[in-house]
Specification:
Layout lengths: L1 H17 L23 E5 L4 H17 L5 E5 L6 H12 L6 E2 L1 E2 L2 H8 L3 E2 L2 H6 L8 H5 L2 E2 L2 E2 L2 E2 L1 E4 L2 E5 H6 L8 H13 L3 E4 L6 H25 L7 H13 L12 H9 L3 E5 L4 H7 L8 E5 L6 E5 L1 E3 L1 E2 L5 H12 L1 H11 L2 E2 L11 H12 L1 E4 L9 H17 L2 H11 L5
Parallel strand pairs: 1-2, 1-3, 11-12, 14-18
Antiparallel strand pairs: 4-15, 5-16, 6-7, 8-15, 9-14, 9-17, 10-12, 10-13
Length: 427
């Protein structure tokens, strides 16, 4: 994994050098160069530049500034590429020993890349000082810990295995949202017979199609075997993986023809305006629907993706303390706010995510979020591949490529062979 990480960091650093014009957002933003890190300011690095995520960060910083009015918090967000631009700039800075005060990174393999590279400090002392033991689920803490040392604070949680549907289409056709694969195909056939696109997909970027595939894998394999894929305990030549590929192939027979020219939010738009009935995407999609003045339970609905009832695919943003920061006391104060009930309840309702803590104030969250909070407490938590938690970036890149080819060619044998070859990156 360390070898793959080195290759990943090197590749992404090279990519960062050719990026130009990566914008920042926020009234106090200066640049992504890190020059302010040495004069005592707090430099908060993320890709939260628009919509609810930017609003959430602003709300969090407002709470922090009321407690620490003398600390200058600089929002060093980098826009573009669904986080790819920010990750490239960050990798370059970390390799150059010029870290921001703290930075957004997905829990799991993405965070562990920097841990394995020796770039992060353990923060067990913060957890002990603030009495956070037991405040976060164990499975979630496993994504930010290694060898008994904690390296990140989970700030939010999104769910990756969600099927969204247009309520009017389902009501007008007397349909129930599908909870199994058999139900999905039955509903899809009925919709297709009436000239309605059953499943909206936007895979101009890998997120759309790989999300469906990883959700199918979870539905076929179950949470335990699904997790074994990423540890090498289960091979990609397992019959369950082949069955998942067959189901994925069948689902692709119900998508919109223009999927390759659309981004993930464009697929949401097809559902919102009634041009498609369903969409499979993480629950950040809820933010899109609500931005279109749609109401959960009235205009749109959500269920777990087929056969994944009882499993919660976790996508979590975390922050930690890089080695080499000059203002550790202030960084600790900011990280403490990130991990507090007050901080998480300021941030998450704006972003549309749920808090990583189990003791948040439920009254601050809407019906969908409180339902997700219940499942987060009770379900088996599993890491998302597509969102950086399950496996190293080098492996994910190969899977994204294999999925992209499969969506076009639909050759199950070639797809399985590509996954098997890619799995060498997990060793």
């Amino acid at each position: 994994m360390k070898k793959n990480l080195t290759l990943f960091l090197g590749a992404i650093a090279i990519f960062a050098l050719i990026l130009t014009g990566c914008g920042n957002s926020g009234s106090k933003s200066s640049s992504a160069s890190g020059s302010d890190n040495n004069n005592g300011n707090l430099e908060i690095f993320s890709w939260w530049t628009a919509g609810g995520e930017a609003d959430g960060l602003k709300a969090l910083n407002t709470v922090f500034n009321k407690k620490y009015p003398d600390i200058d918090v600089k929002n060093e967000a980098v826009a573009g590429g669904a986080g790819a631009n920010a990750k490239a700039v960050l990798a370059t800075r970390m390799q150059g020993n010029n870290p921001p005060s703290t930075f957004q990174v997905h829990g799991g393999a993405e965070l562990m890349a920097y841990v394995d590279a020796g770039k992060m400090q353990p923060i067990n002392d913060l957890y002990k000082k603030n009495g956070w033991d037991g405040k976060f689920p164990k499975d979630l803490m496993d994504l930010v810990s290694k060898d008994g040392k904690i390296y990140g604070i989970p700030v939010d949680v999104h769910r990756g295995n969600v099927l969204w549907y247009n309520k009017k289409i389902f009501d007008d056709n007397n349909l129930q949202p599908p909870k199994t694969f058999d139900e999905f195909f039955k509903v899809a056939d009925q919709l297709k017979a009436k000239g309605i696109t059953p499943l909206a997909l936007g895979d101009k970027e890998p997120l759309g199609s790989t999300t469906i595939f990883e959700d199918v894998l979870l539905g076929v394999l179950g949470p335990d075997k699904y997790k074994q894929l990423w540890t090498g305990e289960l091979g990609f030549d397992d019959p369950g993986v082949k069955k998942s590929a067959e189901i994925f192939k069948k689902m692709l027979g119900y998508i919109n023809d223009d999927h390759s020219s659309l981004a993930w939010q464009d697929a949401d738009e097809l559902v919102a305006n009634g041009k498609a009935a369903m969409n499979i995407m993480g629950d950040w999609a809820k933010g899109y629907f609500t931005s279109e003045n749609m109401t959960y339970g009235k205009d749109f609905g959500a269920v777990d993706t087929p056969n994944t009832d009882g499993s919660f695919m976790v996508v979590t943003d975390t922050f930690g303390k890089p080695k080499g920061v000059k203002n550790e006391k202030q960084v600790d104060e900011y990280l403490t706010e990130l991990g507090s009930v007050e901080g998480q309840d300021a941030f998450n309702p704006k972003k549309g995510s749920i808090p990583a803590r189990l003791d948040a104030d439920r009254s601050k969250y809407d019906a969908y979020s409180t339902s997700a909070m219940d499942d987060f407490k009770d379900n088996a938590l599993v890491p998302s591949l597509e969102n950086g938690s399950a496996a190293p970036q080098g492996f994910l890149t190969k899977v994204d490529t294999a999925v992209n080819v499969f969506v076009t060619q639909k050759n199950v044998g070639n797809f399985i062979n590509s996954l098997k070859q890619a799995s060498s990156s997990l060793k």
